[in-house]
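call fold(seq) -> tokens
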Amino acid sequence: MENYEFGGIKITAHSVTDGIDLFTEVAGDVAVFSHPGNDVPVDLFKEISGESERLKQIALLSLEKNNTVIAGITLDYGGIKRLSAAIAHKGELVDVADSCSVSEPYTRSGTVKIYNTGKIKIAVLTGGDARVGFILSKISGLCNLVVSLEPEFRPENEQRIRKLSDNFLLPILYVSPARIFFAGINLYGATLN
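ret:
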């Protein structure tokens, strides 16, 4: 777990191996969880029917901690797989953000989502979205922070994300099961003012 303070907002970032229920020490205004190392896709139809409760657990964690929780997940929409992140705010599942730049076996989304927690505007990017200059150019100026969730870490990805953070003046919190870093926190930490 890594702790950050960004513009007066406390953020915790967690590398997950088995699931978010292992974390009892979740603090901060925003808690970010990587995709689990053994990520089993969340079947959306089972979630709706109540057979599965992973999304409900994420919402309950945000209720218990009275914060915003962003958790990396893989969704299965009747055979269509998406690399995603669930966003819950104070007990309510707000939405699911899907990757716009992934390839097989995943299906791409066409929309980047930005969430206003009441204190901060966060763009939630999954897969390689934070490494795509076109995507970052579209959201630059619309959010205070980018949260990037990737299921696998590659060292060259860190170099690319740090460079794009500088190019677009966007702070990017990167969270994967193997690596957490915050590009631009020192330079852009006052962007909430």
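The chain has a mean pLDDT of 88.
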